[in-house]
Amino acid sequence: MVALAAAAGATDLLALTVLGGAFASIVTGNLVTLGFGVGTAEPSRIVPVAIAVTAYGLGVLLWRLLPATVTVPLLAELGLLAVLAGGLIADPGAGARRVLLAVAALAMGGQSVVGLRLRASTTYMTGALATALAGDLRKAGPALVPLMSLVAGAAATAALANVATWAAAVVPAVLVAVAAGCLRTPAGDTPPPRGSRATDTAAHPSGSR
After folding, report:
1. In sequence order, which ranges of 18-125 are alpha helices (DSSP H)?
2. Nearest CA among 205, 155, 139, 152 for reference residue 1
3. How many CB atoms lie within 10 A of CB 206?
C-alpha cells in the first residue's frame, strides 16, 4: 500500500506540473477547479480537469471488469504508466500532454478499484486523514502512513525532475511494479478480502482527497 500511495503522489505531481494543471486522482480538487473555470469562463482551466475527471471515472468502470484479483489490474495500470513515462520522456506537445493526462487519470481510476479490493485508500486521502484523527490518536500512526507515502512520492518525483526528467517520469511505473510484486503470492494473485464488495462499488470519485 505504501508503494501505491507513493505512486499516486508521483502521478499527481506529474499531472499537475507537466500535463496541464489538473490532478490525476484528486477528483474533488479537480471539481473545484472546474467550478472556478466555469465561473470565470476560462476554458484553459475547464479542459484539463474535465479530461482528468472523465478519464478517472472511465478507469473505475473499466477496472471493475477485470478479474477480481489485484495482480492483473495492477499490471494493466503498470502498462498505462509505462506509456505515460515514455510520452513524458519524448517531451510531448500540448495536445499530447492532454492525452497523457487522460492516461494518468485512467491509471489512477484503476488503482482506486485495486484499493477498494484491498480495503485500503491509495488515491484519495481525505477520509484516511479524518479516520486517523477522529479515532484514538495513539493508534493514528498506521492510518497516516498512506498520507506520508503520498507526500514522499510527490517529493521524490519533484526532486528527480530537477536532475533528470526521465527519472521523474518513470517513478510511478516503478512504484506500481514494486507493489504488484509485493502483492503477488506464490499461488498467484492476492484475492480481494473476504466479503469485499469492491467489484460492485464505485471508487468514490466525489470523495477523493
Report:
1. 27-40, 43-63, 71-89, 94-117
2. 152
3. 10
**Residue ranges of domains in the chain, CATH in brackets:** 2-207 (1.20.1250)
Phi and psi torsions of 185, nearest 5°: -100, 165
Q: Is 36 helix (H, G, I), strand (E, B) or coil?
A: helix
pLDDT at residue 209, as a whole number: 52
Q: What is the 3-state secondary structure (H, E, C) of 123-192?
A: CCCHHHHHHHHHCCHHHCHHHHHHHHHHHHHHHHHHHHHCCCHHHHHHHHHHHHHHHHHHCCECCECCCC
**Which residues on neighbouring strands pair with residue 188, listed in sequence order?**
185
pTM for the full predicted model:
0.83
Phi, psi of 190, deg, nearest 5 = -80, 120
pLDDT digits 0-9 by tens, 125-157: 777 777 777 777 666 677 778 889 999 999 999
Q: What span, in angstroms and rounded, lies between the C-alpha atoms of 175 and 34?
A: 30
Nearest to 107 by CA among 154, 153, 156, 55: 55
